[in-house]
Please model this.
Amino acid sequence: MSNNEASAVVITGASSGIGRALALEMAHRGHPLSLTARRFPLLEQLREEIHRDINAQLTVQLAVLDVCQIDSVGETLRDLFTRLWGVGTVVVNASANDLTRVGGDSLDKELNLIPANLTGAIATVNAAAAHFLVRGQGNIVGISSLASLQPLNQQAAYCASKVLPSPISCPASSTPT
Ligand SMILES: NC(=O)c1ccc[n+]([C@@H]2O[C@H](COP(=O)([O-])OP(=O)(O)OC[C@H]3O[C@@H](n4cnc5c(N)ncnc54)[C@H](OP(=O)(O)O)[C@@H]3O)[C@@H](O)[C@H]2O)c1
Model:
């Protein structure tokens, strides 16, 4: 991030957890922000906190985005890229988790992780890469998990779904595979 000190950062799933913490850290470093999630009131609270406690002048744009609504992912991100000049980084953070049991009665819960963690992440990377390829530069940060490397009890579906972010994140200046 050292070459992009003041470039704008888009973070999906910024309403809680790691995405929220990352937004606060990026605000401390002076990066204009675009924050997305489904729970808009939490995003509004976060923006208020950033303006009150960190930097009253920092640009913080908000957008409702459910990454499971695949058709809306590209449209929403393109709109953010237009509204917030100079986006240098997109953090693919939005993700779902649930305790499941293979062979038990949790097939629905297992399958429910796929739209957010796999197809939603792919759609997010796709929109970001399309933008950065035109722009000629940019970073796509996939938030994976150690769970992608080691099976966890009652989290087989989650572990499988978190394999995705590492291999699909690539420098936009390289040829997408
Ligand atoms: N916590 C850990 O120990 C840990 C460890 C390793 C990796 N990770 C990874 O770190 C990332 C963040 O995890 P976390 O622990 O911070 O989880 P979290 O607190 O549950 O936050 C998940 C975020 O994703 C958003 N989200 C969930 N489903 C979404 C959807 N369909 N569309 C758009 N946004 C959605 C949520 O916002 P809304 O509900 O408002 O949409 C929320 O902001 C994930 O990629 C996770 O796999 C976490």
Q: What stands out?
A: The pocket of NAP is lined by residues 12-19, 37-39, 42, 65-68, 93-96, 116, 120, 143, 145, 162 (CB under 6 Å). Residues 2-168 form a domain with the Rossmann fold fold (CATH 3.40.50.720). The two ends are 23 Å apart (CA to CA).
